[in-house]
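Predict structure. Input: Arylsulfatase, 774 residues.
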Amino acid sequence: MKKHLSISPSLIALFAMGAANAEANRTTLPVPRPPFDGKIAENIVDSRPSTPSPVEAPAGAPNIFLMMADDVGFAMSSTFGGPVPTPNMDRLAAAGERYNRFHTTGICSPSRAALLTGRNHHASGVGYLSDGSVNYPGYGGRILPETATIAQVLRLNGYNTAMFGKHHNAPGNERSEAGPFDAWPTGLGFEYFYGFPAGDSDQYSPILYRGTNRVEDDTTHTSLLDGRLADDIIRWVHNQKAAAPEKPFLVYFAPGSTHAPHQAPPEYIARFKGKFDQGWDKLRKETWHRQLAEGIIPKGTRLTSRPAEIPAWTSLTPAQKAFAARTMEVAAAQLVYQDEQLGRVMDELHRMGQSNNTLFVVVQGDNGASGEAGPKGTINELRSILGHDENEQWMLANTDKLGGSMTYESYPVGWAWAMNTPLRWVKQYASMLGGIRNGMIMSWHGHVAHPGGICAQFGHLVDIAPTVLDAARLPAPDTVYGVHQKPMDGQSLLASLTACDPDHPRTQYFEIGGKVGLYKDGWFLSGEDGRPSWEDMPSAGPRPPIEWTLYDLSKDYSQATDLSKKEPARLKEMRAIWRREAERNNVFPLDHRFAMARTLGGPPAGPGRKNYDFWGKDISLPATHGPIPIGRSFRLDADLRLDSGTSSGVVMAIGSRFGGWSLYLDHGHPVFTWARSTDPAEMATIRSDQLLPQGASTLTLRFAVPAPMKPAEVILSADGREVARGALPGSILVPSGNGETLDTGRDLGVPVTDYATPQGALQGDIAHLSIRFD
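Output follows.
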């Protein structure tokens, strides 16, 4: 008797599902559902369900691991000839290919928008930092619906998508629980997000979010931020592959290092003791020689000269040299720590058997190394940016504390310049290669013709999204959720893994903060406005003259020789092309102001609003987009319910010890602490000798500013009776760092001062707190 082969309905459905996915129109996302092919009758017995047709990624589509570091210059890591050993990036490069003519936009938010969308940053709506968004088409500070991210495209094509780290593409006023959240990673196609939505983060006490929900500080963590991010990547991949082992993933790792604050474990810093005592001038020459010897840069590349605005190392005093050398030791240690976290993730993917089917793309920096701390450096990044009038003696006194939790440091511009060897200038300079050229590594097992090779083909962040789609064999969509999409500006670099083409024709414009550039087929146009990256405005005012220069990068890798006088016709043609590209991409109007001038240029508390009411002791708002009780007179009334007559804890705090103030109780005593920085000359504490009683009471803070920019007077009252009064050294400060918040009933992130309770948790309740501006 013959046995008949029986094929189950579920297996038939799987075959049909595969065929349906193969024929799906993926240029319209979400992929349209196929017509119902089942049968519906009155009774389930006579009915047949439709064939299941979930959207799946194309067969063989790889996992995608995408990483972009922060403020890492072209020449910082050993992978590109730099002085900092990065063995894990080195081994990724040994299996893949290094790109030595890869480019970014010149500053944080625009680079991230270009990377995620495959469109030019102005075309995607992020022409400058998202913190300073304005209502011009190219400067809204949020990625536009018509420029869907690679995460959204992959998710709608059957991938799982997750992001870890820095997301600097949500406007500052959209970072509270009121949202909106469509500019957050989970609104841009990432199914999972663990990180921070601001421009920087303290590495010891980060303010983190999972999805759009604040992660309460976990005192059990002993690792710095990058370690926590790597932990969570590994945890997420474990869970993703447990639930859907055949489903490919996109992991986007965006560490906040080596952006300020430069912080690292002390044992890492100790490895570099004395390694940078020779100074930036000599280090730059050492790096240049090493890059030439290793073939990182072409033979004959000139080492560009030091700009006059950057001091010679020999001009520094011994104390200044010791301080500066230590800042570089810390920055190097931070990059080493970051590299180790990358290595942990790579090792785990290898252990899981996932690395061979993963396309790795690692961009070493979202712009050139940062010179925003100026010639002297800083121990307090935002405090420095606002005025650059830090007390140098106090800075030098903190030399041994650099890299720890009590400094928010960044190195002098001389080191940033050296980290961009052999190129000109630093971050923000879209007119100079030092601001826009970064190292990139791409690796995909079995797809690299010459592992360990160096490719000189022009590349840009806008090329990454097309490259990923090419690897996944997916088209760029025409519509996403009914929104017609702008075409991608980038070009796939996937073919360069097998055949690098240095002469590939290409045109790409650049613009950041009024500094402009244009690359066209080996030539580079530079339009420079003269503003140093650590200053707000050039002396000429809002319409500074632009100096136009021209370079043949096919023969002049480092942009060393200006040919504008020899090539006037080409100069004119390049300027015309730049204007055409600027108009096409919504670059105008040019704004030459620096970030802080743009961000702080508006009214301190929003247009017309003077009254704020908070109900409870667990309020948390972005520090620079809430009431902003700084620089003008106001009254704060807090209706308290205290557990005892010796209760401790925060009533309200804003910012941190690097810039902030706190009204709190210390064993029943009302206290106000002001900290423009950690410098004792810029701090003040006003304390009452009297105690607040157990139960109900009203604590009042009067912050009186007699005239604009004048020092404030603080008056504390309990139940209508004055209990303390004192003068502050000023009335203006910048809540620091970028992700710090205004909190009631506690002080999250980096605290303003030390408290008697963990995180300043109030031993009691706040029934109501009001702020009334004069």
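The CA atoms of residues 263 and 404 lie 6 Å apart.
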